[in-house]
Each structure stands twice: as C-alpha cells, then as structure tokens.
Amino acid sequence: MQISRSGSILLTGAVAVALAVTALPAAHAAPSATAVIAEVYGGGGNSGATLTRDFVELANAGSTPFEVGGFSVQYLPGTPSAGSQWQVSALTGSIAPGGRYLLAQAAGTGGTVALPTPDATGAIALAAGSGTVALVSGTTPLTCRTAADCAAEPRIVDLVGYGSAVVREGSGPVPGAAATASVARAASLADTDDNAADLSAGAPTPVNAAGETSGGGQEPQEPGPTEPGPVRIHDIQGTSRLSPLDGTAVTAVPGTVTGVRTTGSRGFWIQDTAPDGDARTSEGLFVYTGSAAPAVQVGDAVLVSGKVAEYYPGTGTQSITQLTAPRTTVLSSGNALPAPAVLDSRSVPGRYVPSAGGGAIDALPLEPRRYALDLYESLEAVRVEIADTRVTGATTAYDEIWVTVKPRENPTRRGGTLYASYEDQNTGRLKVMSLDPAQPVPTANVGDVLKGRTTGVLDYASFGGYNVQATELGTLVDKKLRREVTRKQKREELAVATYNVENLDAGDDQAKFDTLAEGVAVNLSSPDIVSLEEIQDDNGAVNDGTVGSEATLKRFTDAIVAKGGPRYAWRYIAPENNKDGGEPGGNIRNVFLHNPKRVSFTDRPGGGATTPVEAVKTRRGVKLSASPGRINPASPAWADSRKPLVGEFTFRGKPVFVIGNHFASKGGDQPLHGRYQEPTRSSETKRIQQAAEVNTFVTSLLKADRSARVVTLGDFNDFAFSPTFTALTKGRVLKPLITTLPASEQYSYVFDGNSQTLDHILTSPAIRRFDYDVVHINAEFADQASDHDPQVVRVKVGGFWH
Q1: Quick check: pTM over 0.70?
Q2: What are the tens digits of pLDDT across the range 182-193?
Q3: Measured between alpha carbons, how far is residue 427 from residues 346, 552, 586, 611 in Å?
C-alpha cells in the first residue's frame, strides 16, 4: 500500500509477466486475395534515373473496393541495424476492384519525368537496391526485424522484400532492383507469399487510380457508347437487398447525376428518370470511382459501363449496390433532376425491419410499405426530401447530425427520441451529411430544427446506416437548449453522483479539466461522493508500465476548487498494467472522490488489484474486509475489463457502501440497421456475467445486514430493460432509479439519434427516500466534455432503515 501526498490511498497489485515461445511460419500471413503491393521503386531521382521520385504502387485483386483509410505503407532498410525503425506513410481513400493506387515517396535531385498524379504522398526515401515494404492495417510502426517475426505480425496485409532484404516473404527477396529498375508483380496480381516468385525486376511503370501513367498520359481507351444498353438501374437493384446482377459487367446504363462525392470513398450517384413503377426496386445507383475524382457534374445525363458489386462497408452491415471500375459517357449537362421521394410520418412505416431469426435479411423480398429499413433500401441512392426535421443527435466532429422525420415518435422532454426497448425501434431517424465540403451541416444541439427542405441522396454507411447526403440543407432554428444545473443537497441529504469523464489523464488540455470540473462543481452542485469512470494513468495511452493516477486526480480536483467546488479527496485501486481493458497503456479505472467536510471514507487495509473484497458480518452490522476493495477481480467476468471499486463511507454516523462500476462495452454487437435481424448482442454475455458478480456481492452485504445502505452506480453500458439488469437486480437487491423517472426523461446518452441510458444509479431496499436526477450537460450538445451525462441521487438520512 502506498500513501499519496494528498492523503489518498494508492493500492497496486503485483504484475506477472509470462513469456511464451512458439514456432513461427515462414511467410508473413496467408496470401492476399485483395490488396497487394504491385510495384516498388526506390531509384527515383538517383543518378541515371528517369523518374524523379520513389513510389509504391498498390493494386486490388478482389471484386469489391478495398478501403485503405487507416492503413499505411511502411519501409525498413534491407539490412536493418539495431536502431532501424519502420517508417510510415498513412493512406486514405480506397482501391477499386482491379484498380491501382499510387503512393509517391521521396524525390531525388536526378530524373526528368514526374510521376502521374499520386493518390497519396509520403516522404520516405526508399533505397534503390535493397529494402522491405509492407502494407499494414493501422499506422502504428511495426517492430519486427526478421522474416520470422514479421511472419507472426497479424497487421501485415502484404510484404515485399527486394535486393538483399532480410525481411521478405518466401524463399528470398526479389532480385534486380536498381536506380533504373523497379520490382513489380505479374499482371495477374497473384500472391503466393514468395517474393522471388511473385515479382520481378523491370522498367518502372507507375499507374495511379485514374489509370494515368508517367507524364500525365492515360492508356488509350475506345470511345464510350452513345446509346443506352439493355440494363436499367432497377434491373441492377432488384427486389431484395442484393443485386440479381452482382458480379456482372453491364454496359451503357442510363441515368442523371444527382450527387457527386469528392472526398473519402469517391464517386457519384445516378438515377433513372424512367422508373419501372415497382416500389421495391430502387431507381438510384452509386458509381464508385475509387481514388479518382469523378469527372461528372450534377445534372449530367450519362451512360455508365462497369461491374455490378455489393459492397459491405462494415462488419455486419447491409451492403451498398454499386458500379465499379466505371467508364462514363456524358451525353448532356444541365438536365432537370428527378423529383425527390418525400420521407415523413406518412411515408415511413412504423415497423423497423423484418426478422430473419438472427440470420441475414439480404435475400428477403423488400416490403417498403411495411418496414422502414425496407423502404430506405428501396430508395437506396435515390433523391429524397425531408422537411422541418427535429435534431435528435447533435452535430459530431465528422459534421453529421441525426434528425427524425417523425416528430411524435417517442419524444423526450428536451427534444430527442427515446430508445425504449429492443422491440420498439425509432423508424424516423436519419443521419444527415453535406455533400458540399464548403457548406457543412450547421452546429446543432438536440431539439433544434432544420426548418424547410433538406434534399439529397439516400445513402448507407457502416456507422448509423441510412443517411441523407444533402445537396440542399434546411435552415437551422436554435431551440436554445440549455445545460441543466441540479439543486444543492440539503444538510441532512447525502449526494452521490456518477460521471464518465472519457479517458481523462494528466496530459489532456486544461480546457477539458475545466469543463469537467464545472460539471461537478456547478451542474452537479458539488456532490458529497462522485464515482468517476474512465480515469487513466498519469501518461494516458503511453504504454510504459505507469499505473498511478495521482497527477491526473490532482489536476482534476484543483480544477474543481477553481470552479467553486470543495477540495475533494480521492480513493482508487490501480489496476495491473494493461489488465483492465481500454486504450493500451491507459490503465483505465474507477475512482471515488469525496468531500471530507461532509462525508468520511473508512480506510481499511488489505485491498489490491487482485484481492477480492468481502462482506464481513459484525455485531453492529456489516463492514468491508478492505476499503477500498475490488469485487472478485480474478473472475473471468472481469478479464480485460474494469473491476468494480467498492468503498465504505460514513455520513452523519451511518455507514454507506458505494460500488463504482464500468461494465464491458457494447463493441462487437451487430448494428441495429445491419444485415442480421434480429442483431446479436455478443458483448452482452460478458456484462451479464459482470452483473451477476456485482449482484452476488450486494447480496452478501444484505445477507450480513439487510438494512445495509448500498449505492451501486456507474457506466453499465446497458439498458434498464436488458438481460444485464435482470442479472444485476436479481432478488430485488437493487433498484434502478432511472425507472422512477417519467419515460421522457429516462436517458443519459445519445447514440445514432437515440436517447438511451447506459449510466445508472441503483440502490438497496434500505434506501427509501431519495431524490434522483440525470443532469443533462453533455450528450445532447455538439460541444461536450464527455459523451455521457452525469447523474446524482440525494438520500435523506431519514430514508434509511435503522
């Protein structure tokens, strides 16, 4: 046990390190059937070279676009020294099926011919004769230095060693690289994980995503067709979520350009002006141009040839039907756009999506008059119009807002849309983004209104599902949403609060500390006890073994004092390094703050990162075996997850037991809008186990003393109607206070335009008289210090059993 300078207790557990040695494969990974390194050239700008820059060319051997945003190309010298580091060039955009992607690297002083316009640019000086290049998922530098070590690195998608490179795939590196020679993969793009067999040396031939070669030229193409072919957009879209022509090459599909996307996944939307009259078949289609900027404008009448593909933007999502590797003929410009489909309370059905018993709904016939997601799918890539929509999710850092086209659907008191149950989805929610980077969506809070017409193309994305890519935005009406301030507790009331402060560490900006501190001192009116979630160690995500949070908590409590709050003391138990989940190196944990002028903490030694706390029955009731303590930390329920912190407090002579929680996240669950219905909530299994552990501990307290005063609170990452809460409240040992509020106020968090509750306060039966409040200061606002709202319960001493 260590005593901090502030008088707070820091408990640290032993750190055990186990090392395992396993055999490593000869090749780095299974051969890639999608993105590969097609060509590497390190002689750019060298003496005798023609090209002025080094380059790495990628290619997509797959049948669907390959998103490279978040990926990187990394380089290691051919014979790395002890100090050699992988150099990193981050990538953006995507590679079309069969397409190329050109990454320009460092320029030299020689050469006379420029590369074609690169799709990305780095500054790495590749060696002409020997080196290793890797395509990597993520941008964190690799650390492997041998072929065997890199073979075991799961982030490597493809790797090429050339010259005399130590790190390579297969029997050996590719020979022949020089100032005038690159190493390039065969035209088939075959990848057998043997560099010497898959690539060979030759004259550099850089090609970018637009098909341009060195000097800005483009390989000659035959003139495009001038008459429509036999296939229409509705033929491609079909009557289900999957195109009946998936994988088929189509020629001269007619349409009018309704929207153009010039950033991210580039492309444009076309719509047929001669619909077939079948409500199930969409008349719109996305044409994917990869990294190449679309060479069309809104209002162009076009004929597009390409390959039909179903693209899944994320795990478990629905697909987007699109044309890839397109060739486009513009017939005329300035044409009138088709009238938009109106989305409102009358047109959007009240049921959300058909059930497939947990299976895929891809092949189910669409029923757009019955299900909202079927309606949206039948309008995929079609021009739509929404009007006078209320904002249900504030503007994000990605310039997105959520609105509802059904203003009477489960409204909250402050203008949001309540997520009431798994069976009662909100069908009117849509995300809105702007297609014009120069005119982003306005900064809006929940309850504001986009007045007038918002028109655009209905699209689908991995985050949030269906969305409007707006070409015309309504006018923002500010409804003056204000942050709440709860009342001050009375002298005889104990105020206990919970607040998720979102990965706070000592390296954060002072502005974050100040805003969070104001939330505690002003908006929460300085509670007697505050249970904090997501306090990190003092250097945050730096993974160096640091586990203490003293500097972080000193800055935070100082900031609270500066905002007019009390001088809080703190208690926590430091986790074992990298054993509690969260950001690697962050060592996230729960922390108690308390105002020693109002409430005292009962310090009882014996607690630690791996030591379970127990309820001890005495003649005077129950006490903790250690305070602070952790609930059964060795249980598999808490593996790689935050362990609950338990503390014993005394208020006006009475003991109060507080349990701070931060259950496992909902990451990994299938999306509400996804292809699997009903979606599987895989993360729920762990939270149910965690809830059972907390329930067992609370039950032990009440078994020792049925009048024990227990407050269990924190970020439970689940809803009051979930199986997690069934396990947590088993035996009626705990009551979720969120259920005591009016339905329109039962939320503390907003996700995808749904107002919902992940944070909770629960109390034992001995606590009868209380005043509970969710204090809305973050979740509904574009400007937020955390994505969670804090909450507080004020308990009267007279409300305790005696």
Answers
A1: yes
A2: 999 988 888 999
A3: 12, 42, 38, 47
